[in-house]
Amino acid sequence: MLRKLSILLTLIGALTLNVFAQEKLTGLQVMEKVYNRPTGEDMEANLTMILINANGDQRVREIKQFSRDFGKVEKKIMFFIKPADVRNTSFMNWSYDDPNKDDDQWIYLPALKKVKRISSDSKGDYFMGSDFTYDDLGDRKPNEDTHKILREEKLNGEDCYVIESIPKDEDYMYSKTITWVIKDKWIGLKKEFYDEDGDFLKTLNVKKYEKISGYWIITNTEMDNAQKKHKTIMKLTNVKINVGIPANKFTERMMKRGLK
């Protein structure tokens, strides 16, 4: 009887360990869950961009943003509405499912009346005076980095994986990033960026996320650039999901035309 009980306990222990092993994720798997988190087929929203310098002076920009998932490519376009000095400027980003294909990006500057393609050499430039680079505005694919789980800890009351991501491309603008990922929602709650020399550069903090039409949507973020002593706040409002945004919204012609 004792022998049978011993065998039964061994089997239960083995099954428990097997279940635990199945649930334990790698750093890559965590970041893939973040990358693949569903956000609907399309979305439109108002975006407020607040630029804050070291003295606390603010510049506020109002933007209309649209995005749509076409399957093999996700397209996003934003139109600056105000103030007057940036009105009718537009930006478009196409992110591809193909892991070997980089994002395509364009910007339209009304003063030049020309759509300019963002070259790979310019992806490290800061977008419209903000603390987000052009590369930050795209979708970095999980396979572009080597990921490692550093630890698990709570942040803002949420259970998180802390993931270190090191670029496979040694010439990439960041030497590494560290991301706090909420376990059950797969939202990057906080992300630290380190420059090419390995020095701390900036932090992206998610201040608010909401469940809208059944999807977790990040609606308030703050990028704090420690080296520049500058901060950018991004707030999404009036978010609408699965509204049927037409394919022709995401074209160079529409960038020039703007919102009518």
Key attributes of the depicted protein:
260 residues, outer membrane lipoprotein receptor (LolB), chain A, 13 strands, alpha+beta
Q: What is the fold-level CATH name, i.e. the topology?
A: outer membrane lipoprotein receptor (LolB), chain A
Q: Strand order, main sheet: write it out.
A: 6-5-4-3-2-1-13-12-11-10-9-8-7
What is the approximate shape? Answer: globular
Runs in which pLDDT lies below 50 for 5 or more consecutive residues are 18-22
Helix content range of the residues, please?
10-25%
Q: Superfamily at the CATH H level? A: Lipoprotein localisation LolA/LolB/LppX
Describe the protein in words.
With 260 residues, this protein is an alpha+beta fold. It has one domain: outer membrane lipoprotein receptor (LolB), chain A (Clam). It is 16% helix and 47% strand. It has a 13-stranded antiparallel β-sheet. A hairpin with a 7-residue loop joins strand 4 and strand 5 (104-109). The longest helix has 22 residues, at 2-23. The radius of gyration is 21 Å and the shape is globular. The model is unreliable at 18-22 (pLDDT under 50).
